[in-house]
Here is the input.
Amino acid sequence: MKEKIFINARIIDPSQNMDEKGSLVLNDNGKVKAIGKNVKKTDASKDAEIIDLKGNVLIPGLVDMKAFVGEPGYEYKENFRTLSQAALAGGVTSIVTMPNTKPIIDNVSMVDFIIRRGRDKANVNLFPCASITKQCEGKLMTEFGLLSGRGIIGFSDVNKTIQNTELMSRIMDYASDIGVLIMQHAEDYELSKNSCINDGEIATRLGLQGVSALAEKIIIERDLSLLSEYPCRYHINQISSKQSLDVIRKNKNNGKKFSVGVSINNLSLNENDIGEFKTFLKLSPPLRLEEDRLSLVQGIKDGLIDVIVSDHLPEDEESKRLPFAQAATGAIGVETLLPLSLEMYHNESLPLNKIIETLTINPAKILKIKKGTLAKGSDGDICIFDLEAPWKVDADKLKSKSKNTAIENRNLQGKILMTYLNGELVYSK
Here is the structure.
């Protein structure tokens, strides 16, 4: 591999508090050799490849903490190859994959299979999760120590909550002893049973069973109470309401150490977007009030929410084009994660640095991986995008195997131009 030097770039790297016009040099091993406004062409070898970015933005490759891959068992929805293509087209170079495959990733043999299959077929950094409990049933703990020793990055029952408080206390106790990451979906089962939409006026008008934000708040309050006794690495996968944010603010102000994620869907859409039974907007957690959405954006600004995730969940068209209550839950999002996030910059809701931080270094720190940074010596995982370029979302042109986007025909501003993985060009517009 030849050395590369990227010139005339706006470099944004929150891990170094960097936002400046400068250059980046990658050595022949794909590692960052030099970065910043003081870098000159002479800092690269004489035969280095010169890439003129013409003022476009260069950032670390994105780290997406919650995405579903269909292998094994659901290859008709997504597979490693199509997930990789979609991710790289969105500037995402590292993905945390969820364990709700078929069979579920809850034992060593499945871990070995998923890591081997991902290594052979995926052209992106994959960090697999295993389930917290056997079969994601919320009854028996998986072998945290054994599974993490085989390459598991964290543990999650995906969109199922550990309901049993006694079991959750044992999980957190064990996790605190061995230092593994627990990623909880916060939604009380009894309050959310049979629900498919936010509880409120729209649910009543459409005749659908709604779920109150209280279901989310109760689980968060319970788990954060347990965290006082069992201080493990604890992450709330996604929050969706102002009520939850109030609880998080109180606990973080009291010094508790935990992290919080939010789906880009809950930052960019509200329940009004569902309109007349738009099943592609049936999500978990559900879209809530505009007041909630604005509170979540403010939560990022205040540092209460640490990461933005795509919550990439491909579903075939047949399972989405059903009556709302019967339709599958979820939407694809890994390819549009960054452009959709940039809406919050263009409408002046959030600074650009803060957005990039939630998509790069923050998830990398939570996961304890050496990604999300362009510091000297780090991997050459790079996303380059045009901050101002307008485009319209066309589901048929998205790389994912499934086309269930929640933002079909939405006008966005900000287009991915190139993605590099370990110094190699893996996507170009």
Summary: The chain has one domain: 60-367. The first strand starts at residue 4 and ends at 13. The chain has a mean pLDDT of 96.
